[in-house]
Amino acid sequence: MEMDTTDLIARARAGDHNAFRDLVQGHSRELQVHCYRILGSLQDAEDALQETLVSAWRNLGEFGQRSSLRTWLYQIATNRCLSMLRADSRRPRIASPLPEATLPEPTGAGDAPPWLEPYPDVLLDHFVDQCPGPEARYETTEAISLAFITALQLLPPRQRAALVLRDVLGYRAGEVAQMLDATQESVQSALKRARATVDNHLADSSSGTGSRKPARQPDTAAEHRLIARLTDALERADLDALIGLLVTDVRLSMPPAMLEFRGIESAQRVFAAVVFSPGRTYRAVPTRANGQPALGLYLADPHASVYRAYSLLVITTAGDHITTITGFNNTNVMTRFGLPRTLPETD
Question: What is this structure's pTM?
């Protein structure tokens, strides 16, 4: 394997594009996930990955193989993401509420930033087999969850990068310092602050489960039954049935609107005002995002025999109840999940 890599590097340095593609293709998916963790946006992550690969191609002659190719690529990707965060010009600064309905009074400002996007599970195929280093503090499934990605966005960029490199990927503190061109002491200081922020957010996100992490086993038969009941309640416009699926301190958020609604009573008002307002009927299509169940929600068009893409709901579960619903009302997000823009009306 090492001989194959050495040969590919030599050919790529000589200008062989096919050799370079073979060299990096095994790392591309995990690098995109890495960029997504730092940036919180799939679109930005795709851009960062492409810029990383262009930079790697141009600078392959500087790769001295003192570290592994994978580590070198992670260093480029991390610094590319930090540069994008410094520029920051593409990110929305103002979040607007849903235009189609008057929302009830929120219980607080939401943590989810306006640029937050869900990550399709189909892009995680084969990625979950990547083994983090021994220094990792977070399991792979937790480190891609929407709550974890949201928590990362609360951190200053370098804290964010340090925590992902150290606690998600498992690089040693000295390696992280070298990748960030920082001292080991500054990395340890950044990690201490970052861990406190992230762990506090995760504990708050999973309140009612008694642990830092949501008490769930993803993609189980019980989870499928719960999502089927949610789908049925949405399509029948059965508010009482839907509310019965929620934990008492359920959290609702709707990026890019930086608003949060917490608790059964607040949730009931939101669903009554926004989702189940008179004349609205829906169809829901199951999918998965961030290692969690999700639904593509379609709203019937009163002027045509179709249902139009309306929202992508990402669901967090604990046991046989729902703890969090995050609704992404940018229909462009749904196309990233292979969901159509319209569904035909059924009999």
Answer: 0.90
Cα 227 from Cα 233, distance rounded (Å) = 10
pLDDT digits (tens, 9 = 90+) for 32-79: 999 999 999 999 999 999 999 999 999 998 887 677 999 999 999 999
The position carrying tokens 């500087």 is: 62
Contact of 290 with 145, CB cutoff 8 Å: yes
- Can you list the domains of the chain with their CATH numbers? 1-86 (1.10.1740.10), 146-210 (1.10.10.10), 221-344 (3.10.450.50)
Element (H, E) at 306: strand 306-318
Q: Which helix (H) or strand (E) holds 325?
A: strand 321-328
- Tell me: the pLDDT tens digits for 260-277? 999 999 999 999 988 898
pLDDT band at residue 209 under the 50/70/90 scheme:
very low
Contacts of 347 (CB under 8 A, 6+ apart): none
Q: Measure Cα distances from 200 to 31, 147, 207 in Å.
A: 27, 11, 11
Q: 180: which 2 tokens?
A: 């960030």
- Strand, coil or helix: 151: helix
CA–CA separation, 91 and 279 (whole Å): 35
Of 288, 267, 291, nearest in space to 339 by CA: 288
Q: Report whether 127 contacts 29 (CB < 8 A).
A: yes
